[in-house]
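Researcher: Following up on the earlier apo prediction. This time include the ligand. It's zinc ion, with the SMILES given after the sequence.
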Amino acid sequence: MTKLLAALAALALLPAPARAQADGPPRPDLAERVDALVADVVPDVVAYRRHIHENPELSNRETETAAYVAEHLTGLGMEVRTGVARTGVVGVLTGGKPGPTVALRADMDALPVTERVDLPFASTVTTIYNGMEVGVMHACGHDAHVGILMGVAEVLAAVRDELPGTVVFLFQPAEEGAPAGEAPAGAELMVAEGALSGAEAVFGLHVTSAHEVGELKTRPGGMMASADNLEIVVHGKQTHGAYPWGGVDPVATSALVVTGLQTIVSRQMDLTKAPAVVTIGRIDGGVRSNIIPDSVAMIGTIRALDDGMRAELHDRIRRTATDIASSQGATATVTIADEYGYPVTANDAALLDRMAPTLQRVAGDGLDTGVAPVLGAEDFSYFANEVPGLFLWLGVRTPGASDELFPPNHSPLFRIDEDALPLGVRTLAQLAVGYLEGDESAGR
Ligand SMILES: [Zn+2]
Ligand SMILES: [Zn+2]
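Model: Understood. Below is the ligand-bound prediction.
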């Protein structure tokens, strides 16, 4: 081996920062500089979040929010697409070095909830929703998601020249569900419109008052449930309430159907694999005491944390409802509308493994990679069904504060401790950098 080759070989064994020192003046590595930049943008992130909080917009109506985001991304020199999935915004930040593409996602919509939190920037916005005047509030914390991702955009744009790859910023509308007649929407429609822009992995987070500031939680596999709307119409034959034998009673049949549906999860599903839920939330039929009606309609929701169990639940629900109806001489029409349903949000185990050192560095003891799954749903699942995805919970409860002060997401009293925002920015920024650099060190 020549002296030169030996020197090069020794150099290659050194970690990246030391290598930079050997090349020239010492400079912190990219991850360290990103951390310093995160600290600088925190006041901006707080301001973005407050602005969006004060100006909330419902699903598929996020026009002002989208304009605010698009202006920010354009100002950072990104390639920006607007009107994606109606009101979504996609920013593409092409790094100065070659490398892979990774996507970061924030959802932008608010809820028809009248805010009751005493804040100087509380929402006073009202609108007409389903024919009713309602308040509009960021009661799910998507204002924080948008503020955080705007901050991440600022940080990564500042180190653009050294980024080994491309970062796609997905600002998504309608996570809470599109208004009637507007499906597909949200993440599903963004995917269909090519928003992922060649990304090979996607990261997202959700603020939650269930966990405290400084806590970052995730798990491999199913983390949030699939959610499918269920409608069952039981058709009987109308008759006098005093002479039920003259018709077919859909009310009595529906009672059997509801009970039968409850034995699917409790008696037929392998609950050691994952939990599941079938709920009938509304039942509707008849007009007065002495008329057996022609039909009864019921609606409900189906939740699963495993794709196979989701499909099995659908089959068993159809069979249970139709067979019970038929046993009574009635018929049942079962509609499981996956049109408005969300798939299981499942984290890619290999991606979580790969990013665990980054998450560990970012959150330290606050990191938990074995959090229990929840049966709420998220349409981040559509992105994560396209490419490996990782979704995280970001705690926003003041440490030690009560449930009363930090009620669950969707409450009119939902609040976040803004001290949680820096960890949110750092998490997404470092996941992007860690992913891109990981690929570089793997030999790109
Ligand atoms: Zn929500
Ligand atoms: Zn949400």
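Model: The chain has two domains: 25-220+348-441, 225-342.
Researcher: Noted. I'll compare it with the apo version next.
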